[in-house]
Design a protein that fits this description.
Blueprint: E1 2-19, E2 28-45, E3 55-73, E4 76-89, E5 120-121, E6 124-125, E7 130-141, E8 149-161, E9 170-181, E10 184-193, E11 198-205
Antiparallel strand pairs: 1-2, 2-3, 3-4, 4-7, 5-6, 7-8, 8-9, 9-10, 10-11
């Protein structure tokens, strides 16, 4: 069905870095945690077409992301990421789409368009209350004399859903060329989305704030 909702919330973001280089880390961990709480109100129209009564109530939003870097020897570098999100709310209460989750894109699951992964409703992708993504990546300089230019192999997985029981991670994997530029890592990745059976080119620049 359709929903019309609004919410007032307070949020807190916390980032902790323990890495050898803020611009292009090769060893260490970066943590990003977010927490929020608020009060939402809205109406939901079920598929039957009969509007339900307006619902009001509290909700909480939790999000965490951990990125780890490790040199593996012989100029090989490994990195891993785990990302989790959860909106805690009464299932009859509609929360605005902007507070919910989707997956897909350069820093999520490569091989899929930005925010294209989530639960489906009436044939359309919508946002979900639960998020999970993960990534493993291996890089190595293309030539020893230019250590800032690397090739990369990676596999990503994840999705968004309405609850952990409905979580169905999809895979994306591929290869790329990365440059440790003065402003941060520049990445050109070609990824294959196993769910869509299509290749997608991803271009991104990581800037440290």
């Amino acid at each position: 069905g359709d929903n019309d909702s609004e919410a007032l919330s307070a949020n807190y973001h916390w980032t902790w870095r323990d890495v050898d280089d803020l611009r292009t880390p090769t060893r260490g961990v970066v943590w990003n945690l977010q927490g929020g709480a608020g009060y939402a109100s809205g109406t939901t129209t079920p598929a039957s077409g009969d509007p339900s009564a307006e619902e009001k109530g509290p909700f909480a939003r939790l999000y965490g992301r951990a990125q780890a870097y490790l040199p593996l020897g012989n100029s090989f570098y490994g990195s891993a990421r785990v990302e989790l999100g959860q909106v805690i709310v009464n299932e009859t209460l509609a929360v605005p789409d902007t507070l919910l989750f989707r997956a897909g894109g350069d820093d999520s699951v490569r091989g899929y368009a930005y925010r294209s992964l989530g639960p489906e409703l009436g044939g359309a992708t919508v946002s979900g209350s639960t998020l999970f993504t993960t990534s493993l990546q291996l890089t190595h300089p293309i030539i020893a004399s230019q250590p800032d230019f690397l090739w990369a192999l990676f596999v990503d997985a994840g999705n968004a859903s309405d609850g952990w029981r409905d979580m169905r991670p999809v895979l994306g994997y591929g290869a790329g060329v990365h440059w440790r530029s003065p402003v941060g890592p520049l990445r050109l990745d070609l990824a294959y989305g196993q769910e869509t059976r299509k290749f997608r080119l991803h271009f991104s620049v990581g800037v440290v704030f």
